[in-house]
Amino acid sequence: MVAEFRSLCSSFGTSRRAALDSVKQQYPNSNNPEHEALIQRVGAAHDYWDLQVANIVQEIAAKVRTQSMHADHVETRLRPLLASLDHKHRWIDQTYADLLDLLKLPTWRKRHELFSVWVGSILLRTAKAEADRFRFLSANGALSFAFGGNRLATYDRDGEQFDIWAELRSALVGTSSKRKKGIQPDFRVLSPSLDGSHNAQTRFVLECKHYLLPSVSNFSQAAADYARSCPHAAVLLVNHGPIDDSMLRAAIDSSLSQRVEFIGDATVIEERSSEKIGRAVRKAMFPHRQASLPLDQQPDPPHADTEPPSLPESSALIIEKAIRDELRLDFGRLRSDDFDRVEKLNLSGRQNLSEINALKILNELEELDLSGCRSLRDISVIQKLRKLRTLQLAYCPKISSLTSLESLPELSQLNLEACHGINDIGPLWNLRRLVYLNLGGCSSIYDVEDLARLDQLNTLILSNCPNINDIRPLGQLRGLRELLLNNATMKDVSPLARLTELETLELDGCANIETIEP
């Protein structure tokens, strides 16, 4: 609307006065309604009446604030005066000057964000109308569109569950001239699962642009990056200004273009009349089910006595079964809400569990038992479980790195018994809330110096660690109450004399001890 009004006025002159004089000369017939309407429209740029009223109101407000005028007195005088004026409710065109003033406001600098929220509201409204069950995920009664990524809503459709996210960041697949490492579309719809990345779970991507003129390189690169990184997703790019659909599609690889759609001239007025954004969102998120194949093209059903080949369970399926056991859910699809209810998970003894990436969505997990998972090697995903308090990793011989444990500020109990692959316990130095630590049987550990900072430690087990010869750092653990050093090889235990809170000390099988005097 602003651009159209500016274009109209500029076609008659380079200034407001010149434009008004020119339109009066070109359309002098005041009896012609079309001439009169055009003169009034251009003349609207010279109407400052409402600005004067606003200035007067501001002056009155300032006097009330400084108490030079009493608020009750102002109300008493203004109410009958305003009531006596003739008035009616109607839509009016803002003046050219008012619109220019609006463009100077700080809010206008955030217009692209406002546009994005408006388009996002169409996405949410469409999902709510089409879904079998829909729920907003508000915080303190409001939806957050913050840049860091927020889940806005969850819904069910035909037995499947989906989540709507704003600003969710994920990895970039391939190379891009606009992005280096990641993609972060304005909105995306995910089909959450334990198996697969955010990109693999994404079913719909919605990107919003607030450009006055189309940018072929910017728009096409964004759409291509999203389509390439999210192989199962339809991509919709919406621009406030116009687009050139043919040029945009020509700039995108043909293997991706079939999943990409562009919409231009996306304005409130246009959407009210055409609903083109809503229709495009509905088409992408709720496609009609494909008609069944003709009978002569349908595959033969399997014989009743034919059993499918037996395949080993995937790690994701093992974890899903454990979650179902914890929540006592025997059937039905796991929902995002279900994952948020998991605070404790027992995966002990799962010999085929080789990776645990599916745990990354268990944001509320506090207790995790992975003891006896002998195939488990990589535990880096554990760093995402920020609320974890208890971690059991006993008898996991293939685990060699504890780096991921540095990011667990709430961890208080850690069992690493018989983890023979661990030779560096340096990452444990930052676990300042640790009260129980079992390193028994960790035969590759040589140095315990990094344990000296664990001043909250109550129980420490170092039994059957044949390569630990120097226990002097343990003398700094003044709060230690229980210490097990069975079958250790150190000769000097005098540093333990400083452990004044010690209640239990086990030294069975420590044949090399020369003296127990402090």
TrEMBL record:
Keywords linked to the UniProt accession: Leucine-rich repeat, Repeat
Coiled coil: none
Region (Disordered): 292-311
Superkingdom of the source species: Eukaryota
Name of the featured protein: Leucine-rich repeat-containing protein
